[in-house]
Amino acid sequence: MNTDALELRNLAKEAGNETISSSLHSAMCRGLAEHPDRTERRCRAEFVDMRVNPGVVPL
């Protein structure tokens, strides 16, 4: 954060980030493929889970 406080540097293509980049891309594609109402329900449920289990971020 100190070296890129405005988060302008794209880290997606840098070595070592392939796994997380691929995981995030897959999650995005799954989200785009489902019905918007289903996406809404899933996201709300994940939000509740994050409040119950702080520090756990679903992907």
Q: What does it look like?
A:
This protein has 59 residues and is an all-alpha fold. It has one domain (1-59). The protein has 2 helices and no strands. The two termini are 22 Å apart. The model has no long low-confidence stretch (mean pLDDT 83).
Radius of gyration: 15 Å
Total DSSP E strands: 0
Give the distance, in angstroms, between the N- and C-terminal Cα atoms: 22 Å
Mean of residue pLDDT? 83
Strand residue content: under 5%
Shape: extended
Low-confidence stretches: none
Number of domain units = 1
* Total number of helices: 2
Largest sheet, in brief, is: none
Structural class: mainly alpha
Helix amount, in percent? Answer: 55-70%
List the helices and strands in order: HH
List keywords for this structure.
59 residues, mainly alpha, 2 helices
Spell out the blueprint of helices and strands.
Elements: H1 18-33, H2 36-52
Concise summary:
This protein has about 60 residues and is mainly α.
